[in-house]
Amino acid sequence: MLFNLRILLNNAALRNGHNFVVRNFRCGQPLQNKVQLKGRDLLTLKNFTGEEIKYMLWLSADLKFRIKEKGEYLPLLQGKSLGMIFEKRSTRTRLSTETGFALLGGHPCFLTTQDIHLGVNESLMDTARVLSSMTDAVLARVYKQSDLDILAKEASIPIINGLSDSYHPIQILADYLTLQEHYGSLKGLTLSWIGDGNNILHSIMMSAAKFGMHLQAATPKGYEPDPSVTKLAEQYAKENGTKLSLTNDPLEAARGGNVLITDTWISMGQEEEKKKRLQAFQGYQVTMKTAKVAASDWTFLHCLPRKPEEVDDEVFYSPRSLVFPEAENRKWTIMAVMVSLLTDYSPQLQKPKF
């Protein structure tokens, strides 16, 4: 039996910027989407097309609506287990992954450096093979991107980058979902990055142009993004007709920007550089002075944890700040990543306008 099911989002969802409706069903089952990510690794968004990233955001919105707004129980990962390797401490990555995987019926297993010391007490190759025999996927929060590459090469299960010194793809998915909810569409937005040329900026550079977003990034001299990342980002901008601007002037990067974004100036492992970095980043604090040159509809993002020298309280706690919805969306986006890499589930909500 063919029938149409159309569900309008409730007022709370509308206030969050959703404009989605449920799609057509055949015999009670959602029509299959052409994008198939099952079995893939997520090491960097460089390896994913714009349509594939949009699919993960679509799935994130679908799960958030069905579970949070409608109160449905979706045991999509029942019987599955997740290995979680954490060389670096974490609040949002650990909580979002553990609670999200469990909410979908799966079992997450948290492993610290006290439990598993990558490449030291056991080779990366052996670790990958053992984990492949006992879990359905691995999320690893590590220092070196090369460790993730080896795990992915040797494992027979999906490997997800929970953060590395080079990339933080699951954070950027949460950022984009937050902006999608707020603005209704990502295409045409100008992202203004003010801070370090770090893993967050690298992940934005590997994906923003694929949505038709422009990027203006300001970093201090000596703290620019990796040249190889910049070269590829320039290629993406050319292919997608977007603008990429790199500067050392924070106000220049903020000018006309819809979204002001910053991050910590001192990442884990850089503590000994604190004094030098604080000096180099003088003038990079995001304030209302910065916002004055931004677009009239400006918003603010920070992946947390935040330090006052990076952004003052007036901006951080303002109505324009989306940092706490951004933090919550870490949960819905990592759930979508797990579902897309481990199952054949298709979203029931109509695909949003990106």
Automatic annotation (TrEMBL):
<keyword id="KW-0496">Mitochondrion</keyword>
<dbReference type="InterPro" id="IPR006130">
    <property type="entry name" value="Asp/Orn_carbamoylTrfase"/>
</dbReference>
<feature type="domain" description="Aspartate/ornithine carbamoyltransferase carbamoyl-P binding">
    <location>
        <begin position="40"/>
        <end position="181"/>
    </location>
</feature>
<dbReference type="GO" id="GO:0006593">
    <property type="term" value="P:L-ornithine catabolic process"/>
</dbReference>
<keyword id="KW-0808">Transferase</keyword>
<dbReference type="Pfam" id="PF00185">
    <property type="entry name" value="OTCace"/>
</dbReference>
<dbReference type="Pfam" id="PF02729">
    <property type="entry name" value="OTCace_N"/>
</dbReference>
<dbReference type="InterPro" id="IPR002292">
    <property type="entry name" value="Orn/put_carbamltrans"/>
</dbReference>
<comment type="function">
    <text>Catalyzes the second step of the urea cycle, the condensation of carbamoyl phosphate with L-ornithine to form L-citrulline. The urea cycle ensures the detoxification of ammonia by converting it to urea for excretion.</text>
</comment>
<comment type="pathway">
    <text>Nitrogen metabolism; urea cycle; L-citrulline from L-ornithine and carbamoyl phosphate: step 1/1.</text>
</comment>
<dbReference type="GO" id="GO:0019240">
    <property type="term" value="P:citrulline biosynthetic process"/>
</dbReference>
<feature type="domain" description="Aspartate/ornithine carbamoyltransferase Asp/Orn-binding">
    <location>
        <begin position="187"/>
        <end position="340"/>
    </location>
</feature>
<comment type="subunit">
    <text>Homotrimer.</text>
</comment>
<keyword id="KW-0028">Amino-acid biosynthesis</keyword>
<dbReference type="InterPro" id="IPR036901">
    <property type="entry name" value="Asp/Orn_carbamoylTrfase_sf"/>
</dbReference>
<dbReference type="InterPro" id="IPR006132">
    <property type="entry name" value="Asp/Orn_carbamoyltranf_P-bd"/>
</dbReference>
<dbReference type="GO" id="GO:0097272">
    <property type="term" value="P:ammonium homeostasis"/>
</dbReference>
<keyword id="KW-0809">Transit peptide</keyword>
<comment type="similarity">
    <text>Belongs to the aspartate/ornithine carbamoyltransferase superfamily. OTCase family.</text>
</comment>
<keyword id="KW-0835">Urea cycle</keyword>
<dbReference type="GO" id="GO:0005759">
    <property type="term" value="C:mitochondrial matrix"/>
</dbReference>
<dbReference type="GO" id="GO:0016597">
    <property type="term" value="F:amino acid binding"/>
</dbReference>
<protein>
    <recommendedName>
        <fullName>Ornithine transcarbamylase, mitochondrial</fullName>
        <ecNumber>2.1.3.3</ecNumber>
    </recommendedName>
</protein>
<dbReference type="GO" id="GO:0004585">
    <property type="term" value="F:ornithine carbamoyltransferase activity"/>
</dbReference>
<keyword id="KW-0055">Arginine biosynthesis</keyword>
<dbReference type="InterPro" id="IPR006131">
    <property type="entry name" value="Asp_carbamoyltransf_Asp/Orn-bd"/>
</dbReference>
<dbReference type="GO" id="GO:0000050">
    <property type="term" value="P:urea cycle"/>
</dbReference>
<dbReference type="GO" id="GO:0042450">
    <property type="term" value="P:L-arginine biosynthetic process via ornithine"/>
</dbReference>
